[in-house]
Amino acid sequence: MKKHTISLLLINGILAIALIILLSFYISNSSRSEVVYVDNVQLFNGFNMSKDLGKVNNEKITKQKKKLDSLYAIYRILSEQKNTEKTQELENQLRSEDEELRKMNEYFSKDLSQKVWNRLNQYIKEYGETNQYKIVLGTQGSGNVMYAIEGIDVTDRILEYANIKYEGN
């Protein structure tokens, strides 16, 4: 009977150790956060596509502003000379060029931003699926996420991933 008791104790000990190892493995795997967040502003501003499109658009806007400035300078000169016929023509051209500048600004703020977010959302989804996150929240500085433990802000990691994907690597 002592052999049988020793065998049971040995088996129970082995089962207890296996259970402890299994529980510690489960706890260590479940401690990985399934909910993470990104700082939308930092992500958008750091994304190379935003920078590229911003650079191109800013060049166009700068050109248009210079064109408008030149037209205003000519308009002032013609106004001082009381050349009403040419001043009227120039006023029409100024309105048209000013409208063009407004459209450029609107296009950048709405359409190009939407294109950037469409691309970023695709990359965020891929990154989330690859890392088995259940939720990736977005925040805007002092907005949605008021507190989070260190380590669940994945902005830098997603930004790096998105820029690598955008560059074709």
Task: Give the topology.
Blueprint (H helix, E strand, L loop, with lengths): L1 H29 L4 E5 H7 L1 H33 L3 H47 L4 E5 L15 H12 L3
Parallel strand pairs: 1-2
Helix content: over 70%
Shape: rod-shaped
- CATH homologous group name of the largest domain: Skp domain
The number of helical elements comes to 5
Terminal residue distance: 68 Å
Q: Average the pLDDT over all residues and give the rounded result.
A: 81
* CATH class category name of the largest domain: Alpha Beta
User: How would you characterize the largest beta sheet?
Assistant: 2 strands, parallel
Strand order of the largest sheet: 1-2
- Strand tally: 2
Rg from alpha-carbon coordinates: 31 Å
Structure description:
The protein folds into two domains: 1-31; 32-166, Skp domain (Protein Binding, DinI Protein, Chain A). It has helices spanning 2-30, 40-46, 48-80, 84-130, 155-166; strands at residues 35-39, 135-139. It contains five helices and two strands. It starts with a helix and ends with a helix. The protein is rod-shaped. With 169 residues, the protein is mainly alpha-helical. The chain has a two-stranded parallel ribbon. The model has no long low-confidence stretch (mean pLDDT 81).
